[in-house]
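Async update (no meeting this week)

Hi team, since we skipped the sync, here's where things stand on the single-chain job. The sequence we agreed to prioritize is pasted below, unchanged from the tracker. I ran it this morning and attached the output directly underneath so nobody has to dig for it. Comments welcome in thread, and please keep replies under the output.
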Amino acid sequence: MTRPDGGTPVARIPWHKSLLVRLLLTSVAIAVLSVGATAWLAVQLTTRAIQEERGQVLSDDSDILRRLSGYAAAHPDWDGIGPTVRTLSRTLDRRITLTTAGGRLIADSAASGTALPARASATVDPLRTDTYTQPGAQLAGIDPRAVGPYRLSSGAVSEVNAAALLRVKCLTRYGGGGHTERKLSGRTVAIADGSSADVVSRCADETDNPVMPSERTALVALGKLMTGCLPGEFKELPKMDPTLQSLFRDDVVPGMSDRPVVGNEQTQNCLDTARRTQLDPYVAPPAVLYLGDRDQQRTGFDLSPANKTKIVGVSGLVLAVTIALTALVAVRLVRPLRALTAAARQPPEHHARVAVTTKDETGFLATAFNDLTARREQMEAQRKAMVSDIAHELRTPLTNIRGWLEVTRDGLLDPDPDLIASLHDEALQLQHIIDDLRDLSAGDAGTLRLHREPLAVDELIGQVATAHRSRAEAGAVYLRAEADPGLWIDADPVRMRQVLGNLVSNALRHTPAGGTVTLGARQTAYEAVLTVRDTGVGIAPDDLPHVFDRFWRVEKSRSRRTGGSGLGLSIVRQFVEAHGGTVAVDSTPGSGAVFTVRLPCVREPD
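Output:
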């Protein structure tokens, strides 16, 4: 796309690469992920809470069934179950209702007239469901708490307990061990703790497990019930309670030892039927159990259409607000960036700047852009001035050389030694300027090569002073050298002589007759400090920041009265910084100037 003013073409940014679009898409993605993650977390937490609640409810319901089955196993009817139902309901926060198989209400923890739950939870029947042996489960069989006629009286309990203790003593006496265990019927039995078969055999007699009269009567009745339902006779008892089976002996039920072995499913069914017939008068009749919430409120995570609408509405609102805020922020962010882009596309000679309207990152960027523009403008002015200075410095010696050569060519002047010497001086001046420019260019390009070696500073000072002493004497200036002995630096000897030579030449040039130039060197903790001090006219405070600029002279005119190209001090700074040092100037008008060079010092070489 071409600009209307014919300037640099403006590139159109594809919409998918636009910063504004990317910010909007990023915000949308963040909003969607946030809403989705929040919803997922809420569902997970709610589901977990519901599962935990349901698990607790199942545990409570199993406990209710277990307690009611225990009551039914110990009572012949349900007449006194009301207080137990109400207590369980308050403790476990559940509604509990019991009815007969025909639907007649037995007990209900809810208020009178409250409708029953939709379906029954379980049937309470201790003669067919065992909720005691394995807590939390319902096993097929007779509840062990249904002991019926096998429950012992207090006197019988004491007698049986004494016999069990005698057996434990016997087991202990013969090197074994044992303990007693109380059964639901009240009978106490002795249990051997890891005793050998021999020990157990010594202590196994009738006295360890005496059969009480009430038990004998119940066992005889059970045997008769079993004899009536089995084909033939039996010797080995089917699976039954261990305590009951141990009492089912030949001395209790006569003729047991003479019966043949019958151990099939029919035998087990016969035993179960006989026991249910015997226990039926002692347990409560079967009842239907209904369980539910006390407040009749349905629990669980409701995902009804209304709730779904709420979730979608809230999510959409969050998404809309996120997009709106992001668009607002993005527009405010993109506007100054576009202004920067437009300014950067302006022709270089315009040096366009942008308005700083904010104090955030974009404002800092605009300020940095304006500073960069100012520096570029300044560098451009310096470049133009330097080109003009270079042209002027080169034009003067070239003009002189050309003029003398043309005069000689035209035969107006004979080439004599004075003419040749003059042309040679101009050529040397031209060569000096070219060498200085070459050194500065190498420093700017980073290709300046240094040949470092340990260098004694006092010798360096002496060499420079000797090289410039004749010039100082010609100008009636006193040149002296003062250097601490034993001071060494790691430097290029040629470059360092050039540095100090430029400083001394500059000092001699601006020191009137009768003045003094002092070349000194001293050592601080980690540095070698080289100074060139003169007693000349000095430098004005406004000129001090510019003394190291290229082609800068104290004289504002281009007079060559004091000589020099204006590059000497620039070369000094270039060489000193290449050695890892610094150079500075301090001056008071009318009292001379002091140039200070600081370089890292090294130990004296072995």
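Quick observations from my side:
The CA atoms of residues 264 and 276 lie 19 Å apart.
The chain has a mean pLDDT of 77.
Reply here if anything looks off.
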